[in-house]
Design goal:
mainly alpha
Length: 291
Amino acid sequence: MRHKTDTALVPIAVLMVAMVCFQVGAAMAKGLFPIVGAAGTAALRLALAAIMLLAVWRPWRMRPKPREMRVIAIYGLAMGFMNFCFYLSLRSIPLGIAVALEFAGPLALAMAASRRAVDFAWILLAALGLLALLPLGLSSQPLDPVGVGCALTAGLCWALYIFFGRKAGAAHGGGTTALGMVIGAIVVAPIGAAQAGAQLFSPAILPTALAVAVVSSALPYSLEMLAMPKLPTRTVGVLMSLDPALAALSGLCFLGEHLSWIQWAAIASIMAASAGSAATSRDAAPKLLPD
């Protein structure tokens, strides 16, 4: 029994490192906003991460069927717009709140087909948390409606990313991720270039952009691939429920973003709903990390 526990500790630690990387990367990315804007930052991250993943997974060796390519294309579009909308949300709302709002997407997907009484409890808990974060005047620090809308749209894209990612990744694994990243980059890069102009190609921002691509995409994806096959689905889901808290702490430590007690309570409510949903889930497929 102890051997099994010790064996599980390693993939748990690896997945936790991947989650921390993602939130630290998001904080680093926000530092690029004054130079290239949110769209430009999303374009840089997707393009550089696509190059890295292409080198690692070499998807040109795949032989996907036309139906599989359609699924991969939707997966890539969801990935690209998830990045784009998430970064747009970070222009005006704190990182922790953006991630908490984004969780509405996968939570809705997980609960969509459920009719059990316990799942309605998780829905209520998540709804209370979301209600406290919406710009309805409940908080002493009302949030920007546009930022909230962008975070919720990123959550919708995350749900699509999970749904189609499961289908697309079943046959081709990491190659699917690389192709999806390329598709996302192709769609978002022109938008970022139009916003940032020549600044997008400035050598001065390349080190930070590379660091964002590695810490936010290439490294956590690789760590996720190592950890997830070795962990039960419920364990993965419960661990990933820590994401909003990690994001809030990252925003506090690196960006100086202070949240009110109502906002902390709302984040805790969404985390509890996510963890509870994962712990009582009958679904055998794990969530995918947000991109």
